[in-house]
């Protein structure tokens, strides 16, 4: 017991010492220059209410799983050995589905909405058995739909917009987290403050995954707006913390002629499979617009990485 206590105290002391030496850019809140707003007419679309062009090769949402809902191709999308690929998304399932079906044609999308705050997602997945049962129920559903009794997940991804990050935090700190191949965070990762700066201990699971991605062993994408929330750390501070943890520093990005849903890129960082994108904007539309980034992340990174068997419509 004394040895364990000493080890624990040593870890806390080492972490505290590390946090004492943080450079200014790591703990800085979004600057005044980032606090911009843009109307829907200037964006060409309302990011919080995008057009719905249907389900593509996918069937409608199905709910014969332990929680939430899922879509899979009407036909195909599974290998001969029964393996298939699946992304578990948390928060905003309809908005994300619109982006998913525009570029994906094989992998399964399972999604769940539990409310506005991250606490609901954290509480729902606090027990390791919950996500494991969720995955098992999706595998069973795919087996029923395809008639392949050997149906099982090969590549497993986690994605979240806004508050949904709470579920991902829990899964990544659990033993099952080692099976996760890819993580996509769309303007969602927060923590409280300790001594006036980001409390990195609250996102230790995410940090460890980010480090693996920076080594080329996993895939990690995190986009952040410049919204300053009341009383807790912004996604900008979370992004800077992760970059610092992998030994990097964000670089300024040149303004590009056009961005998804009117977003304006301000900073970026890339190392192997670890990618951060920072954007201007502190309004609701800026927050919603990050869902629009999902399409390119899927097209450029996830689809080539997974190479899921193609599905087709009925």
Structural description of this entry:
With 314 residues, this protein is α/β, with parallel strands linked by helices. The chain has one domain: Rossmann fold. 36% of the residues lie in helices and 19% in strands. The chain is built from 11 helices and 13 strands. The strands form 3 sheets. It has a 9-stranded mixed β-sheet with strand order 1-4-3-5-6-9-12-11-10, sandwiched between helices. Helix 4 crosses helix 11 (293-306), helix 5 runs parallel beside helix 7 and helix 7 (165-172) crosses helix 8 (204-214). The longest helix has 19 residues, at 2-20. The protein is globular, with a radius of gyration of 20 Å. The N and C termini lie far apart (62 Å). Mean pLDDT is 93; it is low at 6-17.
Order of helices and strands: HHHEEEHEHHEHEEEHEHEEEHHE
- Judged by helices, strands and strand pairing, the structural class is alpha/beta
Count of discrete domains = 1
Return the CATH topology.
Rossmann fold
Main CATH class = Alpha Beta
* Spatial sequence of strands, sheet with the most strands: 1-4-3-5-6-9-12-11-10
Uncertain residue ranges: 6-17
> Which shape, going by the Cα principal axes?
globular
Largest sheet: 9 strands, mixed
Strand content: 15-25%
Taking the alpha carbons of the first and last residues, their distance comes to 62 Å
What is the total tally of β strands?
13
Write the CATH architecture name. 3-Layer(aba) Sandwich
Provide the helix percentage: 25-40%
What is the mean pLDDT?
A: 93
Q: Quickly count the helices.
A: 11
Rg to the nearest angstrom?
A: 20 Å
């Amino acid at each position: 017991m004394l040895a364990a206590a000493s080890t624990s105290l040593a870890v806390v002391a080492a972490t505290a010492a590390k946090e004492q030496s943080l450079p200014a850019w790591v703990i800085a809140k979004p600057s005044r220059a980032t606090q911009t707003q843009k109307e829907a007419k200037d964006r060409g679309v309302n990011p919080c209410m995008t057009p719905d062009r249907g389900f593509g090769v996918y069937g409608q949402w199905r709910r014969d799983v332990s929680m939430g809902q899922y879509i899979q191709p009407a036909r195909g999308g599974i290998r001969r050995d029964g393996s298939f690929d699946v992304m578990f998304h948390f928060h905003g399932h309809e908005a994300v589905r619109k982006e998913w079906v525009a570029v994906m044609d094989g992998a399964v999308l399972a999604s769940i909405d539990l409310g506005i705050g991250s606490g609901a997602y954290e509480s729902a997945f606090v027990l390791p058995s919950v996500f494991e049962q969720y995955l098992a129920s999706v595998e069973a559903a795919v087996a029923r739909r395809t008639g392949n009794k050997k149906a099982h997940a090969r590549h497993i991804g986690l994605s979240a917009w806004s508050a949904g990050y709470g579920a991902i935090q829990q899964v990544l700190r659990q033993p099952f987290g080692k099976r996760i191949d890819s993580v996509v965070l769309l303007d969602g990762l927060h923590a409280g403050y300790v001594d006036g700066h980001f409390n990195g201990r609250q996102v230790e699971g995410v940090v460890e995954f980010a480090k693996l991605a920076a080594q080329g062993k996993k895939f990690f994408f995190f986009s952040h707006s410049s919204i300053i929330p009341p009383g807790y750390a912004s996604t900008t501070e979370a992004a800077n913390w992760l970059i610092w943890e992998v030994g990097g520093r964000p670089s300024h990005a040149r303004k590009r002629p056009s961005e998804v849903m009117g977003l304006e890129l301000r900073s970026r960082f890339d190392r192997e499979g670890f990618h951060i994108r920072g954007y201007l904007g502190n309004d609701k539309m800026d927050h919603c617009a990050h869902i629009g980034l999902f399409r390119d992340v899927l097209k450029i990174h996830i689809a080539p990485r997974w190479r899921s068997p193609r599905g087709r419509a009925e």
